[in-house]
Structures are given as C-alpha cells and as structure tokens.
Amino acid sequence: MVRRLFNARGAELIPQARMSGPMPWVIAIMVAMTVIALAAGLALGNAVSSAKAEIEGGVTIQILEPRADMRAEQARRAVDSIKMLPGISGFRLVPQAELDALIEPWLGTGIGTATGSAIPVPALIDVRLKGPATPKALSTIETALKPIAPSARVDAQSNWLKPVFDAMVSLQLLAIALVALLALALTAAVLLAARTALGANRDTIEIVHLLGGTDTQVARVFQRSIGYDAAGGGTVGLALALVVILSLGRRFAGLGAGLVDNGALNWSDWLLLAVVPVLATLLAMITARLTVLHALRKML
Amino acid sequence: MTTDGEIIHFDNVGLRYGTDREVLSDLSFTLFPGRFYFLTGASGAGKTSLLRLLYLAQRPSRGAIRMFGTDAITVPRSRLPQLRRRIGVVFQDFRLIPHLSAFDNVALPLRVGGHREEDLTGPVRDILDWVGLSDRIDARPPTLSGGEQQRVAIARAVIARPAMLVADEPTGNVDPDMAFKLIRLFEMLNRQGTTVVVATHDLDLLRKVPDSLIMRLDRGRLSDPTGALRYPPRKTL
What we know:
The structure holds two protein chains of two kinds. Chain A is an alpha+beta fold. Chain A folds into two domains: 2-53 and 162-296, no CATH class; 65-150, no CATH class. Chain A is built from ten helices and four strands. Chain B starts with 7 loop residues before the first strand and ends in a 14-residue tail after the last strand. The longest helix of chain B is centred in the last third of the chain and has 16 residues, at 176-191.
C-alpha cells in the first residue's frame, strides 16, 4: 500500500535528489573511512593472531658460557635433556654458521682471525612446545637445565614481541572505536538530513496527513529516499576505500616484512568490508524512519 | 452526544490560537448525512477555522466533537487517518503538491487509501475529464492557471467518494460557467449521499442549490438563518 505513494510513472511524494545533494557524498566519505578503519583493524588482528600462533609455543635457550668448549658441552647436554622433557614438539640447536650470519651485519666476517680470539656468542637452542610457552613450562625447562647448563637462559619468544603485540592490539581497538564513531556520525548526519527534509516538505506531509496518509506511509517515503542516497553513497565509498586498501596493500607487500605479510586480509574480511555499505544503508534507513516517526508524532 | 444518523456533532466548541481571544466560540451544532450546507460569514468570521476543525487539521481548545460516531478529541492519532479518509477537502489555497502532475495529485487520496495502480487510472482520468482538464493530465501545478489548479484540487477532494466534502471557497477562482459546473458536481455527490459543506461568501452560489442549508458565522459564533442546525432541519432559503 505504501509503495503506491510512488507510482509506476516515477512520481514520488518527496522530490528525490538522487546523488545530487550532499547526503550521498557524506555517506560515501563515512563509508570509505569506516571500510579503511575496519580493514586496518582486521589486518592488525590477522597480523597479531598469525604472529602469535607462530611464536606462541616458541622458546629460546641461550647458553651464556663465555668459554667455547664449555659452551658447546653445555649446549649438547641441554639438547639431550630437552629431548627427555614432556610437552616438547621440536627443537634445534642453531648452527654456528647461522649465529655468525646473525652478527655479521654488525661485526663483519673473519672477526676471530682479525682479533685473535672469537667473540663469545651464546649458543642458541630453538625449542617448540606443544602448547603455549607459559611460565610453568619455562620453569620446567629451567629446572631441568640448571644442573647441566647453569649458564642457560630460557625465554619465551612471545615475551620479546609483547610490546609490539600490545601496540598492535591498541591500534586495533582504536580502529574499532573509529568504526563505532563513524557509525555514530553517520546516524547524526542522517538524523539532520531527515529533519531538514521533513522541514522542507512539511506542507506536503500535512496534505498527505489530511488526505488520510499514515505516519508509517510518510516515514517510508523518507526511509526509501535516504535508503537510495545511502546505497549510492555507500557503493561509491566502498569503491574509494577498496582503491586505498589495495594500493596500501601493494606498498606493504613490497616491504617483505613477515609481520606485515601476516596482516593480509582473507576472504571473510573482504566479505565483512563489502557488508559495510549494506549496514550503513540499513542504519541510515532505520535512523530516518525513527526520526520521521518521532517528528510526525508532534503533528496532529 | 450524537444520535443515529448524525455524522458531525459539535458541543460547545471553542478555538483560540495561542493566548489570543477565541476565534470560534460556543459552537454547538449537528450535521446530518446527505445534506448540503453552506457556511457563510464575512472575512475573518472564522469560516476557515471551523472548516479546519471539520477536516481534522486542528483540535479545538474546548468542547466536544464527534465525527462518524467517534470522539474526535480523544481519538488516538493512529485512528485519525481512517476518519480523514472519509472527508474530502478543497482548500482555499488548493494545496496541490507542486512537483506532482495533475494526475498524481488527484490520484493521491486513492494511493493513500491503498488502491491498486491499475484501478485508479480510469477514475482519475474520468474526473479530470469531468473538470475539463483531460488535456492537462501531466501538467504540474505551477504551470496551471488558478482556475485549473482549483479544479485539480476539487477533483482530488472528490475522487475517493468521501462521506463528507468540505470546500473552502471552491469557486473563488473559476469563471461562472465552471462555478456552476462544480456546484452541479457537488450536488451530484450530495445526491449520492455525500454530506457537503461549502464555505463561501458568494450569495449567488447559495441560490444555485435551493435545497441547501445555511450556517452563518459572525465573529466566531454561529447563527442559523435556515434552521440548518435544528433537527429536522428547516428547508427554506
């Protein structure tokens, strides 16, 4: 019944601006910013979870003995002891060549030959636990190693990156807060637009009322009008955001950094981003409907 | 209290805008179905204010109004549209929707009432033809003359066959021939059972409807020159 306030010949009760007014472009900007903020939040979330999963069960044992022969002996014993511990899924004594490669960017090659003595680089054992590296698991390893390798230092790998993870989680929360704020701003913008449209079409609304039109009929006219604007603006906003996200993605991919690569968006993330304009349209329509109904209640 | 057969009953109704003096005072009368009423009075006598009460654009400041057996003062807002759909209104200033064509303006009461699109094309074209605007169906109000706009407004008021037609100076902007034709249309509707209330200060118009009853407003108070407000009404002019 309400749909018939619009007829087959396209006449509509409220004049339609159709992308020519400011509203669709305000919505386009809101949606673009929301999609970018959400993409950032999702990418950070992915990076954190992926990196956490990788190093969650990772433990590094450093044998800090300065004498090379004793260091090698303690490392060998430590490896033998770790083999016997429960909850270990794998381990690896990092070869000397790899250790040399690690310090090479700072100290160069042939340092032992040049100085007459080798630098006492700690022996490293990379251990993978079956579960997360909890304080209890670390304590078990430390207890086992203490008698055979007193210079051993046991660290959970996740501890090193904790400040980074914390910062990333904060950024993720910031992104979520931005999305919420943008939704609030969109609601406020639609509320203002609906009130302005109500004011501008007050005479038409009064006539429709006097002809027997209901509040619901009038509200649906506005709801539909704002729905068109929001759908158009949302599509433009999504397109703009996708251009930004894809170009930023290409730039980050060029960095070749592991943490950044882990932040790639998966298909469910893309789906969620695509839903943003739909949600924005629904939010705009509901806001318009409630605003108009509320305002109409004050009329006879 | 209303009795059977009454469609409108005013009981000691008063109306004031803001804190000004009352523009309508102590109105008590009853309108009966199938009657033709003229509401006369000098400019500023309160004709338009009384009509606004009749077509539910305004609530009175005091008194009681019953319309079609319903208390129009306490009726919930949700039930007002049903009451309003039984009333056709010709506004003094036409109040056509400027961006809609003549066809769409006239079709509006039917669309609001839920008629199907295919059911309204014929009646709308017929009524526009009847008021002599068959060649202006797609014209928008700003492109129509005052008389043409008035005819569109009248077509819109009668298209849904209302139980009561309220018209505020409906012939003010049309030539005498068209005025006569419009009054004949009102009479035709009246013969089909529609109660007609026409506000006018055109005395010639009163004479064109010999069976009509006259309600006269004088500074917001009603006088009853033809016994319109009594029951059974006295039928003299």
